[in-house]
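Journal club prep — side note

Before the paper discussion, L.F. wants everyone to see what a predicted structure for a comparable chain looks like in token form. Sequence:
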Amino acid sequence: MKRRIIVKDIRKAKVSGLLLVFSVLIVTALTGGSNSLCLAQSDSTDFDLFSINDGPYVMQQSNSAHIAFYVCNGFFESRSFGVDDTIRFRGFCHDTNEVYAVTTREYEIEPDVIDTVSRILTVSDIHGRYRLFEDILIKSNVIDENRHWIFGDGHLVINGDVFDRGAYVTECLWLIYRLEQEARIAGGAVHFILGNHELMILQGDNRYIDEKYMKGVVAVTAMKHEYLYGRRSVLGRWLRSKHAVIKLNDILFTHGGIAPSLPEKDLTIADINSEVRKNIDLDKESPEMSAHARYLFGSEGPFWYRGYFYEMEERYPQATADDIDNILSYFDAEKIVVGHTGMDQITAFFDNRVINEHQTLDSLTTQALFWEDGNFYRITSSGETQLIN
């Protein structure tokens, strides 16, 4: 029998996020019913809480258990699992056709420089637009109609900004998570590069998240949004294992860009990624944050830099061709692929040495960038392949 607990005003609820989760389990144990709870805000007159479906979120509940939970039609639904290296379960909300294989141990740090890649498909700035993301992966022959990996030993690069703006961030994350597993089995790989919006979410900046998450998920769970991706969260630990910069063959990938000032810091790609991981949970004003991390998280760091395309007054000038030469020489690379700064379509700059793959969010379509045998191609939303000159 399903039990429903309704709190008229979330501001009157005196329970913290994790305590609320445990309270639901206690209620279930006492009633013998399933875990179902709804927190409805009395002042939300224009938001349909009961249409919200989101999840799963998988979190460490104790040293001996994990909990998977959803907001399902506006109600909290959860199940507990014993600790194992991998938790397997079928979705139990809007996703009953999905089977999740969730790693509960710490995630290994993947290589950030790989020299033997045969094919690369990259997209950026998905921003929770799940259908566009799924569609371009199908059109690019990375996944089939059932959303399974068919790209063989190819490498898929997600070049930052899966989070914010759109209403299907969770679905995008779990698709990437599963494709990473399937690609590894097939001899390929998925690389999820952290963008500025991943950084913002992990650091508690929620200015750009869809109302579904603030008025729906945060309200129902009574958890701060950043707690959903904290270090006790499976997705949170997974995200913290990701890189800010990678190099595949002779191509650099990063979300915003490599500023001309970065080589002056005498950091390798491994150094950059290590500094980001070690400092990502620190407050910007924390005295514990390293000087290098403060630079990397700033306007000239790889998350935020836009200087390939225009100057930022009082911050930095627009990059020159000589700047690009110096950056590429420093990292022993031939090309840089970035997102972050919106364009009408995937476009090459600086004599094809810089490629921006972020199609402006005003567009109702998206594109992918494909590399093979030394050539870059634009794949359009219709599936057309265009050589980039």
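L.F.'s comment for the group: The two ends are 63 Å apart (CA to CA). Keep this in mind when we get to the figures.
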